[in-house]
């Protein structure tokens, strides 16, 4: 239960924070409730701050408790990475590497990256978690993934605990069914996009904000998103069957064309998105992380070198 590099008081505090209950936390860490209560009191005395408020619904963290939890989680992840690195020095890389990928990269480049990683690190289990940037950032911050590769998000803060590595810049493209009226003929003004319903990825608020900003430069009103999905395949099927349009990364157009989707010819370019690699600074020393970054850059360079940020 207790990590060799991670202090006992922090483990106990984190158990209370995550369960919201002294009884459940005591069961989780294998202590009696009085012993856990005493440990919490000692920690609060050392910090000279109350960490929780007892309520009928359980233990509610104070502002100080929320602040301590953020640091406690970072300490825990750093301890885990240290243990992995030390183990790797003796036995080779092992354990679990959890990679978060934006839809563009999880659909195109990352399956090849994981295949190569599996070959180089046969004792390392690999998870690929797909989502939009803001969802992946929450999972990285909460320790549910170890590294994320996704477009810039409006809810991703600048935090010295995390490292941002620029990776690629990809233009966005408007698409529709091959028999859609906008897919016929020559270049169209961007304003014509607003004559039709839009489809997009579920909870992708960053796309909505960028669309509003870009269209605003043309004096246009924001679009109406009427269909959403967290699946690229489902989204393209909805576009094809509903007569709506979508804005997707240019790197996805080739796959979209296999599903009866094509580019909408426009007389002006849309916006571009920068893709970054984000991870905890303490994870940079892991050989598996270093190779994941290197292999990802090589895969993009091979697939679409014009997008890679050198």
TrEMBL record:
Residues in HTH lysR-type domain copies: 10-62
Superkingdom: Bacteria
Coiled-coil annotated residue ranges, if any: none
SUPFAM superfamilies: Periplasmic binding protein-like II, Winged helix' DNA-binding domain
Entry keywords, A to Z: DNA-binding, Transcription, Transcription regulation
GO cellular component: cytosol
KW Transcription regulation (keyword) present: yes
InterPro entries, per database record: HTH-type_LysR_regulators, LysR_HTH_N, LysR_subst-bd, WH-like_DNA-bd_sf, WH_DNA-bd_sf
One GO molecular-function entry: DNA binding
Family: Belongs to the LysR transcriptional regulatory family.
Official protein name in the record: DNA-binding transcriptional LysR family regulator
Source organism: Aliiruegeria haliotis
């Amino acid at each position: 239960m207790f990590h060799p590099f991670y202090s006992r008081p922090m483990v106990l505090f984190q158990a209370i924070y995550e369960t919201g209950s002294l009884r459940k936390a005591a069961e989780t860490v294998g202590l009696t409730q009085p012993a856990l209560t005493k440990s919490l009191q000692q920690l609060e005395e050392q910090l000279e701050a109350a960490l929780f408020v007892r309520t009928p619904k359980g233990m509610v963290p104070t502002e100080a408790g929320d602040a301590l939890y953020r640091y406690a989680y970072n300490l825990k992840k750093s301890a885990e990475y240290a243990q992995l690195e030390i183990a790797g020095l003796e036995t080779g890389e092992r354990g679990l590497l959890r990679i978060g990928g934006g839809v563009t990269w999880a659909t195109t480049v990352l399956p090849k990256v994981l295949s190569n990683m599996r070959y180089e690190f046969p004792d390392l289990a690999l998870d690929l978690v797909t989502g939009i940037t803001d969802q992946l950032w929450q999972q990285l911050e909460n320790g549910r993934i170890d590294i994320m590769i996704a477009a810039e998000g409006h809810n991703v803060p600048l935090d010295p605990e995390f490292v941002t590595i620029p990776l690629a810049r990809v233009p966005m493209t408007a698409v529709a069914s091959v028999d859609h009226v906008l897919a016929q003929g020559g270049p169209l003004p961007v304003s014509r996009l607003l004559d039709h319903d839009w489809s997009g990825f579920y909870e992708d608020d960053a796309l909505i904000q960028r669309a509003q900003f870009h269209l605003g430069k043309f004096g246009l009103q924001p679009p109406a998103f009427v269909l959403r999905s967290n699946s690229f395949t489902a989204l393209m099927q909805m576009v094809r069957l509903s007569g709506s349009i979508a804005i997707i990364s240019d790197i996805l157009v080739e796959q979209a064309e296999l599903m009866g989707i094509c580019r909408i010819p426009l007389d002006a370019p849309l916006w571009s998105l920068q893709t970054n690699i984000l991870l905890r600074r303490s994870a940079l020393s892991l050989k598996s992380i270093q190779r994941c970054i290197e292999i990802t850059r090589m895969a993009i360079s091979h697939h679409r070198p014009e997008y890679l940020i050198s």
